[in-house]
Amino acid sequence: MPNAPVIGTSRPAEVVARENGLTIGNARKTFATPEGGVVKALDGVSLQIRDGEFFVMLGPSGCGKTTLLRAIAGLEILDSGEIYLGRDRIDSLPAYSRPVNTVFQSYALFPHLTVADNIAFGLQMERVPKAEIATRVAEMMALVRLDGLGGRLPSQLSGGQQQRVALARALAKRPRVLLLDEPLAALDLKLRRGMQDELRRLQRTTGVTFVFVTHDQEEALSLGDRIAVFSNGIPVQVGTAEEIYERPVNRFVADFIGESNFLTVPLNDEGEFRVADGPWLELPEPVFAGPDGTLTVAVRPERLVLDGSAPELVRGRLSEVVYMGTDLHVRVALSDGTSLAVRVSPPFEQLSLTPGADVVVGASPSHLRPLAVEL
């Protein structure tokens, strides 16, 4: 229960998690370009990352997510802004003094050191007693399921095993926050999915706050307790995977996360809209049209139906039917020259979906997402 009080206090757990978490306040960072211009990598970023959560920063290349991660780590100095961990301000501390650790895509393992020595390296640099180092190395190897491999060199391990060594080395120092900069990008699809499961298990087991950077939408949705979608140096939406996917705040988020149909529709005085020559329909919430009297509505292809199980949205003609094994990818041409992408789940044999057939496209009003007017 998110609002249950923490034992020994009268404050809700969510409040305590915020107080002990990572706070970024109005962070700004610019870089000079070779042409003499300036790029705003971070344009006033403010975020609250809760203690003990798996937080994902998602966005295309150049959106600011890695710059922010490096600023948290102490590898980039902010032009302005603040970073707090709990009640402690850390943005003025050198990287080695911050209670955070980072795992990179490249693993950065020492090729001449064994697995055990790689894991122990950071502890040795901090002059941790040898007995405690041995204990922590054994704990970490068990945690990442590398028992019995302590004497091997990195070159004798698979890519997935090397990534586990990097994770074990980072966690051995018992950081309060673990930063992960696209750590799975170098793995093939099967290994990547296996390591996603492993990362979720490690985060739940250790309780360490994970801050994970990726450009992979599926990876973000599968990993994050919450996700921040970045664009042009700011997080444009922060929420759970369901909130981000089902209720995107603008066209960028709806387009970047999964696939969407974007319908530019007229809005009448009663607040009703229509698609092409379809019926006038009510939206589930009050909306405002843009200056030209139109509105953009997003709807996911899998939320559209052709079997009559939802209210009619519009009629059209099948222009493309592609069998994908688990479903059909269908495109419906409309009378106004536009088209809709539809995902049809089985059983679909009885629908007789062939190119040229006339169909009725249906949708529940709750699955139609009006997008903010972009001025």
Automatic annotation (TrEMBL):
GO terms for cellular component: ATP-binding cassette (ABC) transporter complex. The keyword Lyase does not apply. GO terms for molecular function: ATP binding; ATP hydrolysis activity; transmembrane transporter activity. The keyword ATP-binding applies. Residues 22-257 form the ABC transporter domain. PROSITE patterns: ABC_TRANSPORTER_1 (PS00211), ABC_TRANSPORTER_2 (PS50893). InterPro entries: AAA+_ATPase, ABC_SmlMolc_Importer, ABC_transporter-like_ATP-bd, ABC_transporter-like_CS, Mo/tungstate-bd_C_term_dom, P-loop_NTPase, Transp-assoc_OB_typ2. SMART domains: AAA (SM00382). Keywords: ATP-binding, Nucleotide-binding, Transport. This is Spermidine/putrescine transport system ATP-binding protein. It comes from Propionicimonas paludicola.
